[in-house]
């Protein structure tokens, strides 16, 4: 287990000590405004923040054949 990186260090691979801490509001105060200023549409933001996580976190239901 000693060779496994801690999750906070793994997030900032290549930065000393794993990099600087970013709070969750970074998404709304820096990341989204940067996307918008780069020309990202509201629909693209909606897909990124709502549709993709919904698809990734919704279990697929398979019907078993008889």
Structure commentary:
With 66 residues, the protein is mainly α. The chain has one domain (7-57). It contains three helices and no strands. It has helices at residues 7-10, 26-37, 42-57. 0% of the residues are buried.
Number of domains: 1
Number of helices: 3
Which range does the strand content fall in?
A: under 5%
Spatial separation of the terminal alpha carbons: 44 Å
Q: What is the H/E order?
A: HHH
Structural class: mainly alpha
Query: Residue-averaged pLDDT, rounded?
Result: 80
C-alpha Rg (nearest Å):
18 Å
Topology:
Layout: H1 7-10, H2 26-37, H3 42-57
Which terms would index this structure?
single chain; 66 residues; mainly alpha
Quick take:
This protein has 66 residues and is mainly alpha-helical. The chain has one domain (7-57). The chain contains 3 helices and no strands.
């Amino acid at each position: 287990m000693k060779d496994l990186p801690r999750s906070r260090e793994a997030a900032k691979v290549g930065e000393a000590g794993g990099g600087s801490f970013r709070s969750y509001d970074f998404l709304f105060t820096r990341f989204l405004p940067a996307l918008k200023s780069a020309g990202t549409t509201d629909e693209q933001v909606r897909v990124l923040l709502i549709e993709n996580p919904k698809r990734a976190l919704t279990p697929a239901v398979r019907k078993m054949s008889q």
